[in-house]
Amino acid sequence: MANAKEVTIYDIAKRLNISATTVSRGLQDHPTISGKTKKKIADLAEQMGYRSNHFARSLRNQKTNTIGIIVPRLNSHFMSSVIAGIEEAANEQGYSLLIAQSSESSVKEAASARTMFDSRVDGLLVSLAFDTPDLGHFSHFFKKDIPVIFFDRVMEHENSTNILIDNRQAAFNATRHLIEQGCRRIVHITAPTLRNVYKDRLKGYKEALSQYKIKFREDHVIITDLSQEAGAEAAKTILKMKPLPEGVFAANDSCAVGCMLALKERGIRIPEDIAFVGFNNDPVTGVIDPHLTTISYRGYEIGQVAARHLISYLSGTSHVSSTNTIILRSELIVRASSLKKAGNK
Amino acid sequence: MANAKEVTIYDIAKRLNISATTVSRGLQDHPTISGKTKKKIADLAEQMGYRSNHFARSLRNQKTNTIGIIVPRLNSHFMSSVIAGIEEAANEQGYSLLIAQSSESSVKEAASARTMFDSRVDGLLVSLAFDTPDLGHFSHFFKKDIPVIFFDRVMEHENSTNILIDNRQAAFNATRHLIEQGCRRIVHITAPTLRNVYKDRLKGYKEALSQYKIKFREDHVIITDLSQEAGAEAAKTILKMKPLPEGVFAANDSCAVGCMLALKERGIRIPEDIAFVGFNNDPVTGVIDPHLTTISYRGYEIGQVAARHLISYLSGTSHVSSTNTIILRSELIVRASSLKKAGNK
DNA sequence: TTCAAAATTGCAACCGATTGTGTAATTTAT
DNA sequence: ATAAATTACACAATCGGTTGCAATTTTGAA
C-alpha cells in the first residue's frame, strides 16, 4: 500500500543545491530568506507536488492543529448541526477535526478521550454521555493544560469552560406557557436527571409549577431515553392516568413527537385534550400535525461559538480558566400544539 | 499552553535502566522481550501515565490509523447516519476519523482533500458535492495508491470503489408504484443531474414512464436544491400546472415534505388529489400526515460497509482496484401518502 | 580599497518511536 | 566441560520538518 515516492524538503533542497533549512524557511515565508530563493523554492515545490508532512511538523512543534470532538451521538439533528458549526469555524482557522461518538456510554467516552490524547489534539470539545459520573477520564488533559470545552451536556470543572443554554429558564418558560394555556396537570417526559440538561429542565418545570401554586407530583415525571419509541411508550403511561393530564412538556422533540403520534392514534386531540411542548426545534416540529411548540436552540451557533472559543484559547488570546460559562440564547416558539386558548400569545 | 512534562519511552527506560528499544518492544508485546521485563515496563508506564505519541509513531510507520471523510453536509439525517456507521466500524478497528464538509462546493472539497492528504490519512471516504466536475483534486491520492472510496454521490474511477444503492432501480420502483396507483401525470422533483444519484433517479423515472407508455414531459421535472424550502417552492410550480399532476416523486424526503405541507395548505388532498413518494426514509416520513411513501436506504449500514471495505484494503486483505462497485439494498416502503387505491399492495 | 554591519544560508541537534543488526548472557546438547 | 543454540537486550539510523547559532556572502560607508 501507499508507495510512490514521498516528496520531502530534502528532495527540493537537493534539486536546488541548497539546504533543507532554507527550504523549510522559504516555505514558511521566513524573513531571513531572500525573495529570489523563496520563489525558486515555491515554484519547485509546486512542480514536484510537495505536500508538507503534518506529522513531522506536529512532532517537532508539539502542535497538531487538530481539535477533538466527543459527542454522545452523531446522528441527531442537534448534534450534527453543532458539528457542522464547529467544522465551519474550525476550518476557517485551519484546524482539522477528529470526531468520535460515545454512544451514550461513559466507557466509550473514556476510550475516545484516550485516543484523542494520544493523537495530541490541541483542544477538546465534549458533550457528555447520559451516564458519565465524573470528569476523571479527562484528567490527562487538565494536567497538561490542554483546553477542554463542554457544550450542552456539561459538568462543572474549574479548568474548563461550559457552553450551553439556560435550561432551567427555558423549561420554566415552556411550563409556564402550558399553565397559561390553562393546564394544571402537566406531565414532564425527560431523561435520567444525572445530566445537567435534564436536571435543569426538571428544575425549571418544578419552579413554574410552584410559582403557580401547583403541587408537584412525582408520578407526573416520566423518565425515558427520549427516543421517539420511548415517546410512544410514555403515551401508554399517560393514557393510564386518571384524570388525563392537560399538558405534556417533553425534554426533546422526537420524544414529544413519538408521544403525540401514539396519543393521536388513540383518539386524543392535541391540543384540546392534551397540549404539547417539546425542546430543540428539530425540523420535525414544523411537520407534525399540529406543529409542535418547542424551545429553539441553535446547534450550529453553539458549535461555532464553542470552536471559536477553543481556538482563541489556543492562540493565547484568552485563557480557559478566565471564562467559566457561556450561556447562549434560547427561545420558546409557540405553535399549534400548545394553543388551547385561541388568540393567546 | 500545554506544558507539563510529556512522558516518553526514554523516561521509562531511564527509570528502569534499560534502553528505549526494550521499552518500545515491551509495550508492543514483542516476543523477544521477557515476560518479567514486559511487566516492569507496563507497570511503570501505567504509573507514570505514559501515553504513546501518535505522531512520532505515524512518522516512523508511515501509517496514521486515521481515515478522512469528506461529505457535502454533516447536518442531514442521512449523512450523520452514515458517519455514525463509519465511526462505529472504524473505531472497532482502532481507526480515528478526520471529518470535513464541502458545503456542496467543489472548491471546499478540494481544499479539504489537500488537508487530508497533508494529514496523511490512510484512506479517504468521500461523498461528492453537487457541482464537482471531476476527480482531479484526488489525484494525489491515486498517485500514491491511497485508497479512496466514494459513497452515495459517486463518480467512476478506475482506482477507486463506489458504494451506493441502485438509484435507477429504486426510482423505477417508486415511479411504477405511482403508476400502479393510477397516476399518469407524475412530477419528478430532483437536483441538478450532474451527480449520479439524481441522474440515475431521473433515468429510473423515465424508464418506468416509458414502460407504461406514458410520454415523458420535460416540464414535469423540477430542478431544485432539494431543501424543504425548495419543496415549498416546487409546490407553487405544481399548482400552476393544468391539469394538476396526480403524483409526485421527489428525490429526497425533506423536499417532498416541504412540498406536501405547502400543497396541503392550499387545500390539495394527499393522496387523493396528488400522491407522493419520497426518497431516504428520513424520520420525518413517519411523522407527516399522511405518512410518506419512500425509498428506504440505510445510511448507517452504508457507513459501516464503506469503512469496513476501506480498512480491509488498508490491511491488505483486498485491493482497491479489484472491487469496482458495491450495490446495497434499497426498498420501497409504501405508506399512506401514495395509496390512492385502498387495499393495494 | 578596507572593514564592519547587514543580509543570507547552512550545520547539527531535536521531536518520540521503531527496527535491522549486533552482542552479551543463558541454556541446551553432546 | 565445551561448543552450539537460544534468549534478552542495546546501538544507532531513520521518519520529515524546525530552529538556535554559526558561517558565509553582500552591501555600503569611510
Quick rundown:
With 345 residues, chain A is an alpha/beta fold.
Q: Which strand order spans the largest sheet of chain A, edge to edge or round the barrel? A: 2-1-3-4-5-11
- Helix share, percent of chain A: 40-55%
CATH class of the largest domain in chain A: Alpha Beta
Q: The CATH topology of the largest domain in chain A is what?
A: Rossmann fold
Could you give the order of the helices and strands of chain A? HHHHEHEHEHEEHEHEHEHEEHEE
Helix and strand composition category of chain A? alpha/beta
Taking pLDDT < 50 over at least 5 consecutive residues as the criterion, the unreliable ranges of chain A are none
CATH architecture of the largest domain in chain A: 3-Layer(aba) Sandwich
Reported for the largest beta sheet of chain A, the result is: 6 strands, parallel
Beginning-to-end CA distance, first to last residue of chain A: 65 Å
Most extensive interface, chain pair and sizes: A-B, 66 and 66 residues
- CATH superfamily heading of the largest domain in chain A: Response regulator
Shape of chain A: elongated
β-strand number of chain A: 12
Gyration radius of chain A, rounded:
26 Å
Query: Could you say how many structural domains of chain A there are in total?
Result: 3
Domain HTH lacI-type (chains A, B): 7-61
Organism (chains A, B): Chitinophaga tropicalis
Keywords (chains A, B): DNA-binding, Transcription, Transcription regulation
InterPro entries (chains A, B): HTH_LacI (IPR000843), LacI/GalR-like_sensor (IPR046335), Lambda_DNA-bd_dom_sf (IPR010982), Peripla_BP_I (IPR028082)
